[in-house]
Task: inverse folding
């Protein structure tokens, strides 16, 4: 009763009160992220109407997309078959890994990046309360994101004869609790070993791998050798690890709407949150401290690049940009994400005559996307425009150096694809190289134009996609004519 | 019957090592009601000492007692009397000044109506009343520093620990902060602060400690430090330089 009274009263300094604070910060962070995408002034309070309007519009579009796509998908059909369970199980696994990835990113943010823990830790609020509030905040953050993306499918499912999707509401709450609890434990332990920055990178790559796998699922399935497929299918036999009676199917049965598994799954989720809090509460401060101190060498990451007198001025500027880039938390994550896209594209593009063209198109999108991100990082990371402008360097020298700094790494990532294509088909190789270079340059210019003609990030991203599309189209037309 | 403890803060044999020893067997005592200034060159271990004294960093060895309460055995009780102001003000950009202060008060379980009244008073004292409803991300560096100080004072702590509280403040703002700290000690509060501005330490501090490579190489009133440095009528700057150079020579 006392606990309930505390919960309802939101006593200052208590866990519910701190959770409310976490929720307020989550709302402010989310609104700021949307505001940034819409290029709004950063100092607007709370959730401005335009931000809410955009979110409602996106939510409506997700409903429309679900309305069109769901009838073609085989998931959550009202049958009790084993194959239905396998299908739904694959979706649950993907959803869980995505939620785990999101929860880990959120954990890194609230435990290391937001840097407000010192404020709380020097107060008399017990460390365990702070930990529980943070965990609660991560659960809410992960849950809200999942609900935003998944509830349109639930709503459409109910209207189109798949009422069992309704079980996803409590199921998502439970999954958010489990993913946040696991995420918190992983993050605190991983940060001790590799530092918060690489922990964040790990979470990003985990999410990217799942998304890429989703996009290429049919091709990946085809690419798996028969021997592996056979041994995997044995795992689903009676009495095997994933046999019909295996308790590992409990989460799937829960999310398919079976009442008892759902209840057990929710209890397991509560248990996992409690377990995470109990396991971490005593060593919380020590582990956090170790995590903060562990990546001392990473701040000096340079990949052998050194700035020294005697460098050509352009190369001095380029090296400086690269040094700043490799020390940007986003950089390695973006490189890794593009690399995963390209590798999977090669592995899964099939064996038919369209394969080289598919690979060429993916290379254009992946390379130009990276060029766009690098341009934005270089632009945003330039903290000393006035210093550069007041130096004797010509403005053209500065902009050329910055362009090269953004484009060279992207082109280096993209260049093996045209080379590889060119071995079998020189025309396609040359055309792909031209398309990749052209798309990178266009995207770079589009992002530079934002400095002079402020456009919302979302608008620039759409323009980037269209620009890449035009380059792919030109490539296809040229290949149809010349190839 | 418990004996009243006259020590606001006692650091006994405090040690912390990162790649190299940052603090090395430090013994330091701050008396109730005094302003104690901790001086030292960059990397001398001042911030590490303050972070261990406030429970933000676990020491490798040694103990911290706040008003006689062991910080590691009873952290909640010990921190009840404590406030910490780091060198970089920790503010939430998306909260207004008033919301921030009410939140800070809440961490020390101050009821919100009482917190609102104290917040209004502190904001007025620091010349921030007109900006109370503004998001803190729109504040200048000086305003942020003053607001963080208000956040540290809102629960009326008996001991306030400040890391470079005057960095980045203009003369007017620095005067406001100094006045507020002196007001705090006038009503029985205790201040432990680090500063690079030796004039401030000379004029404000009752006692001064000089930290060198994680060790206290001298402490006391300015007169006592002058005697130790054998430099009568010298400024604190001269005394500081003399003592640190002498320690370097001894160590070298």
Result:
């Amino acid at each position: 009763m006392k606990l309930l009274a505390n919960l309802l009263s939101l006593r200052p300094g208590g866990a519910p009160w701190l959770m409310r604070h976490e929720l307020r910060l989550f709302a402010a962070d989310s609104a700021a992220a949307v505001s940034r995408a819409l290029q709004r002034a950063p100092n607007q309070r709370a959730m401005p109407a335009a931000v809410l309007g955009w979110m409602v519009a996106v939510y409506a579009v997700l409903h429309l997309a679900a309305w069109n796509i769901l009838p073609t998908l085989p998931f959550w059909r009202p049958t009790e078959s084993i194959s239905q369970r396998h299908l739904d199980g694959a979706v649950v696994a993907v959803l869980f890994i995505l939620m785990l990835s999101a929860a880990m990113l959120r954990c890194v943010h609230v435990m290391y990046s937001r840097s407000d823990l010192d404020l709380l830790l020097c107060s008399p609020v017990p460390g365990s309360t702070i930990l529980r509030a943070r965990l609660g905040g991560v659960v809410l953050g992960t849950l809200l994101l999942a609900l935003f993306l998944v509830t349109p499918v639930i709503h459409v499912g109910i209207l189109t004869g798949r009422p069992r999707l309704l079980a996803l509401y409590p199921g998502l709450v439970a999954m958010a609790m489990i993913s946040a609890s696991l995420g918190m434990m992983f993050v605190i332990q991983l940060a001790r070993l590799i530092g918060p920055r690489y922990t964040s990178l790990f979470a990003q790559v985990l999410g990217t791998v799942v998304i890429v796998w989703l996009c290429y699922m049919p091709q990946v399935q085809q690419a798996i050798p028969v021997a592996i497929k056979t041994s995997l299918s044995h795992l689903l036999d009676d009495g095997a690890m994933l046999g019909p009676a295996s308790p590992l199917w409990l989460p799937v049965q829960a999310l398919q709407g079976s009442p008892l598994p759902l209840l057990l799954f929710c209890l397991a989720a509560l248990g996992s949150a409690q377990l995470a809090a109990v396991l971490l509460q005593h060593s919380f401060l020590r582990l956090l401290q170790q995590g903060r101190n562990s990546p001392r060498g990473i701040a000096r990451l340079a990949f052998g690049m050194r700035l020294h007198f005697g460098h050509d001025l352009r190369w001095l500027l380029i090296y400086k940009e690269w040094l700043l880039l490799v020390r940007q938390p986003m950089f390695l994550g973006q490189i890794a994400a593009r690399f995963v896209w390209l590798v999977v594209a090669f592995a899964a593009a099939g064996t038919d005559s369209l394969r080289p063209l598919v690979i060429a198109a993916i290379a254009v999108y992946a390379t130009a996307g990276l060029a766009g991100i690098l341009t934005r990082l270089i632009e945003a990371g330039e903290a000393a425009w006035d210093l550069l402008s007041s130096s004797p360097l010509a403005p053209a020298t500065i902009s050329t150096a910055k362009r090269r700094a953004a484009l060279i790494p992207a082109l280096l990532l993209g260049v093996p694809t045209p080379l590889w294509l060119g071995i079998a088909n020189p025309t396609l190789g040359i055309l792909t190289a031209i398309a990749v270079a052209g798309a990178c340059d266009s995207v770079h210019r589009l992002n530079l134009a934002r400095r002079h003609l402020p456009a919302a990030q979302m608008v620039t991203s759409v323009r980037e996609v269209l620009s890449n599309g035009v380059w792919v189209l030109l490539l296809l037309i040229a290949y149809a004519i010349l190839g | 019957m418990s004996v009243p403890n006259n020590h606001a803060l006692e650091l006994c044999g405090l040690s912390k090592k990162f790649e190299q020893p940052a603090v090395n067997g430090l013994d330091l005592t701050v008396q109730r009601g005094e302003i104690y200034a901790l001086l030292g060159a960059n990397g001398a271990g001042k911030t590490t000492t303050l972070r261990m004294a406030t429970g933000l960093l676990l020491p490798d060895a040694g103990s911290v007692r706040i008003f006689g309460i062991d910080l590691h055995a009873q952290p909640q009780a010990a921190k009840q009397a404590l406030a910490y102001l780091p060198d970089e003000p920790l503010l939430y950009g998306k909260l207004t000044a008033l919301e921030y202060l009410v939140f800070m008060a809440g961490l020390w379980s101050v009821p919100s109506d009482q917190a609102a009244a104290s917040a209004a008073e502190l904001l007025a004292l620091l010349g921030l009343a007109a900006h109370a409803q503004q998001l803190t991300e729109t504040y200048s560096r000086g305003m942020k520093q003053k607001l963080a100080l208000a956040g540290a004072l809102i629960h009326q702590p008996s001991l306030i620990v400040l890391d470079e509280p005057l960095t980045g403040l203009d003369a007017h703002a620095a005067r406001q902060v100094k006045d507020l700290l002196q007001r705090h000690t006038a009503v029985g509060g205790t201040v432990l602060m680090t500063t690079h501005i030796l004039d401030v330490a000379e004029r404000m501090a009752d006692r001064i400690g000089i930290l060198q490579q994680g060790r206290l190489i001298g402490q006391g009133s300015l007169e006592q430090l002058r005697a130790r440095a054998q430099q009568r009528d010298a400024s604190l700057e001269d005394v500081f330089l003399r003592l640190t150079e002498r320690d370097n020579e001894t160590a070298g």
Summary: The longest strand of chain B covers residues 7-17.
